[in-house]
Structure to design on (432 residues):
């Protein structure tokens, strides 16, 4: 990772993203707590998460829009717009204003897709192909580290200063990101402007995903795993309550341990990409979730710590493997559409999985559901592992070039003099 951090352009980009990622980590949970305080409803508080995820349906349109403009100026503009979207939060006073929080959450979700697609394209232009895994690993490591402190900091700020503090800190974070990234030198490459009919341009990202074998394999395998991985969002509460016989607040302790695993996974992910390739790293990330889920089927605190640590390692491996594969296997002018389409196709199963898990945990034993998650993620990991040859390791040796063919000596004409001069010596006199 030190190699990519030595690049001045990436250091500037990293500094801007650190500010925006800090704002993101503080906002989401605190908004849900704010709605809970205003309404007293757990359902309405949980609806904030749905409001953020719902705009994923517009991802193909967002990706098409992102790909039509230069990456760096677009990212800067989108960051400023995101900051302005938080302004209505300053007017929220009571339960009658909850609709404003929902509106901001939905617009924030739309902005998150936009910034993610623009960032994928910007990284693809700014960072050499051989350093993309390192760049994604750095960003995932910081993101996982912020999960340790961001939600707690957001909750503390809300308790101390109120909702307006969330809006103010969020605005400062995104405006700082815009200012810092605007100083990044413009990449030498610009996305080609493809002028097709807009329906064809709109679906170009999805066609590329389904037509490129490595991307298709990665999306299918990770999508299958995502259909059950979201169960754990609800199952972990049953594990703490019914299995460990502890208060629900103890979930926060397990989340902190998971964050430590996320740091480990983020630091190790570039080396795994170099050794296993992108699909191999994605397979390892999905497969790591299997022993974690199987261990949580048995309520033991020591085993539980190991399990959530493995689950934490899993997330950055999957993200780095998937994002690096997209950036390396997609033409620059399509990166925005492909990244947005991937985000939608992955987030859809995750949202469905979270909702299904919340329903099933009230009907079935949580241990049985954890066993199901473990078996399903192991199967998805094996499916991905069997396709690892589709993405060669980034740090592997270049393929040995085939031997140069030996050209046959030119044939002399049939009627040529057999004693014609040759290059190796003087002409020999004819024998009598």
């Amino acid at each position: 990772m030190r190699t990519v951090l030595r690049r001045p352009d990436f250091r500037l980009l990293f500094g801007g993203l650190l500010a925006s990622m800090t704002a993101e980590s503080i906002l989401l949970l605190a908004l849900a707590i704010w709605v809970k305080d205003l309404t007293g409803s757990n359902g309405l508080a949980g609806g904030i998460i749905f409001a953020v995820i719902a705009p994923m349906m517009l991802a193909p349109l967002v990706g098409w829009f992102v790909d039509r403009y230069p990456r760096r100026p677009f990212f800067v503009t989108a960051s400023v717009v995101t900051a302005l979207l938080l302004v209505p939060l300053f007017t929220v006073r009571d339960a009658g204003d909850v609709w404003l929080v929902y509106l901001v959450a939905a617009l924030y979700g739309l902005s998150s897709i936009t910034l993610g697609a623009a960032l994928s394209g910007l990284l693809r232009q700014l960072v050499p192909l051989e350093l993309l895994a390192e760049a994604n690993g750095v960003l995932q490591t910081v993101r996982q580290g912020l999960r340790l402190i961001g939600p707690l900091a957001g909750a503390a700020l809300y308790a101390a200063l109120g909702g307006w503090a969330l809006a103010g800190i969020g605005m400062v974070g995104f405006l700082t990101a815009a200012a810092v990234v605007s100083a990044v030198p413009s990449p030498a490459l610009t996305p080609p402007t493809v002028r097709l009919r807009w329906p064809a341009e709109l679906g170009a990202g999805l066609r590329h995903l389904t037509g490129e074998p490595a991307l298709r394999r990665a999306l299918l395998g990770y999508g299958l795993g995502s259909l059950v991985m979201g169960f754990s969002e609800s199952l972990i509460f049953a594990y703490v309550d019914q299995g460990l016989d502890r208060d629900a607040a103890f979930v926060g302790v397990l989340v902190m341990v998971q964050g430590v695993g996320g740091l480990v996974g983020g630091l190790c992910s570039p080396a795994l990409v170099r050794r296993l390739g992108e699909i191999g790293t994605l397979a390892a990330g999905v497969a790591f979730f299997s022993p974690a889920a199987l261990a949580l089927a048995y309520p033991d605190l020591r085993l539980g710590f190991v399990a959530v640590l493995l689950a934490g390692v899993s997330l950055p491996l999957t993200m780095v493997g998937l994002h690096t594969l997209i950036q390396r296997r997609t033409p620059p002018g399509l990166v925005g559409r492909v990244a947005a389409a991937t985000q939608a196709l992955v987030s859809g199963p995750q949202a469905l999985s979270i909702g299904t898990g919340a329903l099933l945990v009230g009907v079935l034993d949580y241990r049985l559901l954890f066993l199901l998650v473990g078996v399903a993620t192991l199967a998805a990991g094996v499916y991905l592992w069997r396709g690892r040859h589709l993405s060669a390791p980034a740090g592997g040796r270049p393929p040995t070039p085939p031997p140069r063919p030996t050209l046959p000596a030119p044939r002399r004409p049939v009627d040529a003099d057999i004693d014609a001069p040759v290059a190796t010596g003087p002409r020999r006199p004819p024998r009598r």
Notes: Residues 189-194, 395-432 have pLDDT under 50 and may be disordered. Residues 333 and 377 are 33 Å apart (CA to CA).
